[in-house]
Amino acid sequence: MNWLLPEHIADALPHETARIERLRRTILDMFCAHGYEHVMPPMLEYLDSLLTGAGGDLKLRTFKLVDQLSGRTLGLRADMTPQVARIDAHLLNRQGVTRLCYCDSVLHTLPASLAASREPIQLGAELYGYSGIEADIEVIRLMDRALRTAGTPASRIDISHAGVFRALARAAHLDEDAELKILLLLQSKDIPGLRECCAAVEEPYRSALLSLPELYGGIDLLDGARAQLPALPEILSALETLKVLQQALPDLPLSFDLADLRGYNYHNGVVFSAYFPGLPGAIAQGGRYDGVGKAFGRARPATGFSMDLRAIARLTEGEKPAGAILAPHAAKDEALAMRIAALRAAGNVVVELLPDETRVEGPLCDRRLALENGHWIIQAINGD
Questions:
Q1: Residue environment code for 349-365, b if the CB has 16+ CB neighbours within 10 A, otherwise e
Q2: Backbone torsions φ then ψ of 316, nearest 5 degrees
Q3: How does DSSP classify residue 89?
Q4: What is the C-alpha separation between 377 and 384, in angstroms, rounded?
Q5: Which DSSP helix (H) or strand (E) runs through 22?
Q6: Domains of the chain listed by start with CATH number
Q7: 158, exposed or middle or buried, with CB in 10 Å at 0-12, 13-18, 19+?
Q8: Tens digit of pLDDT for each residue in 3-47?
Q9: How many CA atoms lie within 13 A of 276 on its CB side?
Q10: pTM of whole model > 0.85?
């Protein structure tokens, strides 16, 4: 059938579109109030630019095509973060701290999960040019505020640090294949597979790698991790960073999971994921990715987060849509036309009937303009 859409691709109908647009405007305005400037990268770029600094998984998620003008390979963006890093490093070229935000569609070759869209609406914020932990604190707070603004506050924010596993892999002299295999086993928390894969790893690194899936919980976890893991400088530094985060964000629902290594090939510091009650996957995630702008001319410190605005909007779908005001056709009534214009200027939705139009299919009109004693007044519509 010609009208069918590809799998995991869907139209947004009026009610969903209204929710998405309301959230987009509200959250972007909140970002801008915090000093984050809005940018709009293009939907497609040359592939080598689009994938610069990204992990191999992004390459697999990116649709590719040939440019009819240049003959070069183009990519339809699967993630806007590398594009925003390019804008910071190459176009803005500022020396100090830069805060940028964005919101637009991205396209994936495969869905992230069975229920996920292949065309999520990625909304996010990035902070460049500051390597201190204060930048990570600002970004985590901004993510929490964005979720609260959307009406979907996080029930849990998991924090991890890519430096812990990276230090163990280096100290254990893991080759690239072994490191990747153990990484995948840790990400899936496959304990039997992990035990088998680490059989030949020398101590104390074997025991440390096997302990990572069990190292999750509250602030007490960090003291336990310090006792269980080798006292490598990178590990001690990472654990101290996590402790500073916990002390700086006591009002947020933080927990720690040292086996949470999503984006390991991309992130190189603190990583974090926000969860919503009843959902198995994260609704927002981010972390530090210093040096991503190197290929664009400047290796800038960077940290940020993003979320799928379309998925967030679905979590608020129980909200009742705002009602509209139904008005008669005003072509021959100047007073009515002025009343309609004033109501719209005040932020109301007013649907003006066309001649001979007797009903409105949408939006929902719960009030009407009626002429009473020579004045156009608003009356409630009671179920008719």
A1: bbbbbeeeeeeeeebbb
A2: -105, 15
A3: I
A4: 18
A5: helix 14-33
A6: 1-152+277-321 (3.30.930.10), 156-275 (3.30.930.10), 324-380 (no CATH)
A7: buried
A8: 799 999 999 998 899 999 999 999 999 999 999 999 999 999 999
A9: 19
A10: yes
